[in-house]
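Final report, closing paragraph on structural work. Over the funding period we assembled a curated collection of sequence-structure pairs, and we close with a single example.
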Amino acid sequence: MSENVIPPFQPIDEATSSPSIVDRANQLKMAAAERGQVLRESVATQADEFKSVAGEKVGEFKKVASKQTAQVKETTNVQLEATKEKLEVKKKEIEAYIEENPKRAAIIALGTGLVLGFILRR
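Its predicted structure, as stored:
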């Protein structure tokens, strides 16, 4: 069990240490600095790649959204025009009915007005 115990950190004193320990420590320090630099460069490269891919995906999403918006707008306009045409036909039918049956149309309008008046009062 004593083999797994890590001794407390003791700074290397260059004056009292053997040159090989100091050299090895300096080599490890340089290797760690090099690996740190490689890691920073790798992370920067990956971040740039991610940014590029994300930008492309946003562009694709904008294109799809724009296309779908245009399709919805076109469909809505077609339906709106169809509804306007149907309303115009009904309006002409009502006007023709009123011209053919003026007394009956007046009685229906009066009755409808009275019913709505009673409903809205309550």
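The two ends are 91 Å apart (CA to CA). The chain is about 85% helix and 0% strand. We thank the funder for supporting this effort.
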